[in-house]
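Dear colleagues,

As part of the handover before I leave the project, I'm documenting each prediction I ran so the next person doesn't have to rerun anything. This entry is a single chain, and its sequence is reproduced below.
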Amino acid sequence: MPATLLSLPLDVLLSIRDAVSTAPFTLLDPGLALLAHLSLSQTCRRLRTLYAFATPESEDLFWKRACVIAGYGRPMRREYPHALPGAPPPGTTTAPALLTWRQVAHAVTAHKRVCEIRSCRAASCWPDDCPPRGAAALAFHPLFYYLHFAPGTELDPAAVLHTQLPTHPDCRRKLYAPLSAHASAACALATSPPVRALTLLHPGTDRAIASVRNPDGCTLLDANRLLGDLLPRSLADMRTVLSHYQTLLDDYRAPAASFADTMRGAAHRGVMGDHRYPYLDLAPEDIERPDTPDTPLGPFVMRCEGAEEGEDGGFCVEALFGVLVQK
């Protein structure tokens, strides 16, 4: 570290810190700002003091602002009325604490260094033909379409289902499997500007099908789980899932129980530590779910609701999407 930087007055260093998130080097990839912040905070004692805040709340607010500017949010954590199969009895362990915003920054930055999927590493970069962040018009993240839709606006249940299945525990494959294990993509904000609620409606009505609300801004993982919950149960989907598991078992070359125990481990629960795998984590409430549709979902409208930071008002935008298509 050049002595000239360390010799600068504290107020100048603080100004540099506050300008990192909007510095010119972040124009192509806003996520580089998080890497810069984390690097500075770990470089030397004097620079670490720039990231020492008076209260945990002020520290969390700083890292939240840095994450949002970089295009990342904090997905909602799911709570289940029943413990995961094979989990320790209730009361013997404590539930994982909600990630702080600094931990979110660590998670997405660390994942970008090792992920083999280019679109995941570049989740904070929007293509040139997409509206820039801060634009007046609402835009969905490119991965929102790539992960869930067939060409056009038809929701593809097979694509959604594969984002919830496991990948190989001992190696990486170029699949979003599961999406929750890809911190960079999972934490990417689903829209620009961020919205606090996504609601699926029947076209021409205000009758809601399902919704998700995240006061910190809805992420791709929030949207993925919203769509995943609506997948109709079918024999074809079950066969797809079982075939996927069988392929993993054959490649893993280990007893089935060992593989299942591995997939139930905390390391494979995703960035929020709460992911459940279809037909592997079969909890009592999953045996009978009368609220799960058994017929394809027809055309639906996705209503996006959001408010600018510090404002009481907000905006509401609706987008029409097509029907589920079986492949």
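Confidence is low (pLDDT under 50) at residues 287-291, 308-313. The chain is about 35% helix and 10% strand.

All the best with the project,
I.
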